[in-house]
Amino acid sequence: MKSVDAIAKILKSEGVEYLFCFPANTLIDAAAKIDIRPIMTRTERTLVNMADGFSRVTNGKRLGVATIQAGPGSENAFAGVAQAFSDSVPILILPGCVSRRSMDIPTNFESVKNYAGVTKWVAQINLADRVPDMMRRAFSLLRMGHPAPVMLEIPTDVATEDIQDNFEYHIPQPSRPSGDPQSIKKVIKMLKSSKNPILHAGQGVLYAEATDELVEFAELTKVPVMTTLAGKSAFPENHPLSLGTSGYTGTGMVRHFLPKADLVFGLGCSFSKSVMSTRIPGGKIMIQNSIDEYDINKDYAIDQAIVGDTKLVLKQLIDQAKVQRDVELRNDPSSEIRQIKEQWLLEWMPKLTSDEIPINPYRLIWDLMQTVDREQTIITHDSGNPRDQMVPFCETVVPRGYIGWGKSTQLGYGLGLIMGAKLAAPEKLAVNVMGDAAFGMAGMDFETAVRERIPILTIILNNSALGGYEDHLPIATEKYGTKFLSGDYAKVAEGLGGYSEKVEVPDDIIPSIKRAQKETEAGRPALLEVITREEGAFSRVD
């Protein structure tokens, strides 16, 4: 058989269901031949975003796999791979490449030379008989350690080379490291001697599928929990010990509890300093758990580290906390959390329930959360104002009920992300909320949802402007109107074959969401264009 057929056969043996793709690449037909469904998008970035969303919702247990053509396909896909790398998502990318005879000749694009900075491993299958070994290596890296994209480049001539039909391929089995027992003991002592500790839960809790353990540990130690942007949904936000999520924006509970904390214990988090992460004030004891040693002592000085899988580490911590019961536990902070939450929501309720026309975006977010079944819904946002407005007020109750992201903030990312999520969890209502600028970046791929029968719900917050950029372009806006946009996106969605409505008054929000949801349940993608005002108020933590 041809080596491209061998690659497809290995993908099938690994349980790959979909191949996110854009032609031309011989792998598409090779995969289709053995019933791996190709999902073709309008742009290469979107297909990578779809693979990303698929892997996130399955926590990497079922992997998103993408293929693209040599040259321009690989060039156009770069942003999607960079986004997945920034947000630590395990996806496999199999791009084409020029023939070996044409390598090292400018200006031919070679992924191995250009993708090293945004992948965990990038290599080239330079011989057909290396296919099994290199694919095994790829899946091994995808399943263990720090989650991140892996890329194998397939030269056009290698793809058509012969490989023996009975080649051997061994599916790599994952292994998860636990924490050092001495470190576990130290951490429990440090935690119990602190007066106002906080658990800082990141995306590693989700990948380890450790929500139950995190809840048990928080209840056992009576320590409140905040989540990072990427870790949102790792801890149920309706739990009495939940402080909610904090990134560029966050909840009033984080604003109240984080400054007075004397110890911050990061679980499954990188403690990365970025514009989308809440800065940890100085003078605190810092404990960090991560599966990746490169995360430790990166941006913050760490007093005690535990390198290991967060689920296994939490089990060790729970056992040790039960052993060390000789230390008097602190008072339960639940009542204080509840009081602060009530005060914070009361402060924001005028915007969350506003009757303004154009519609206040906070009203849309509030009504959305009152309408959907949060246990059966996956929600994500796009970059910019939709993210910053949604993160504090979209209360999550189940793992991966919300896909939070933002270390890289590419506009248009949410559309591909939610399509991949829907394919991974077809029983869930899948909702992405995006601005009109984001739809301008990726909106044609709404047709992908229609054509590929992926019934998502897209909600566009249309304020006819680049919201949040007024401070960056005041002169250009005054002289040339640079920040202002235009478009009738409901008509665009209708033209692309989906269900659409334009929502202009607050009382229509909930009925329109219910109608759109019914359309998705019938198998049809839906889009709501909500005409909103520019809203400059944000729930900031700092």
Give a structural overview.
The protein has three domains: 3-159, Rossmann fold (3-Layer(aba) Sandwich); 181-330, Rossmann fold (3-Layer(aba) Sandwich); 353-531, Thiamin diphosphate (ThDP)-binding fold, Pyr/PP domains (Rossmann fold). The chain has helices at residues 3-13, 26-33, 44-57, 72-76, 78-86, 111-114, 131-143, 156-159, 181-193, 203-207, 211-221, 252-260, 310-323, 334-352, 361-371, 385-393, 413-424, 436-442, 446-451, 474-480, 489-495, 509-521; strands spanning 18-21, 37-40, 64-68, 91-97, 121-124, 150-155, 197-201, 225-227, 242-245, 263-267, 285-290, 304-307, 377-381, 402-403, 429-435, 457-462, 499-503, 526-531. With 542 residues, the chain is of the alpha/beta class. The model has no long low-confidence stretch (mean pLDDT 95). It has a six-stranded parallel β-sheet with strand order 2-1-3-4-6-5, with helices on both faces. A six-stranded parallel β-sheet has the order 9-8-7-10-11-12, sandwiched between helices. The protein has a six-stranded parallel β-sheet with strand order 14-13-15-16-18-17, with helices on both faces. Helices cover 39% and strands 16% of the residues. Helix 1 (3-13) packs across helix 2 (26-33), helix 3 packs across helix 17 (413-424) and helix 15 packs across helix 22 (509-521). Helix 7 links the parallel strand 5 (121-124) and strand 6.
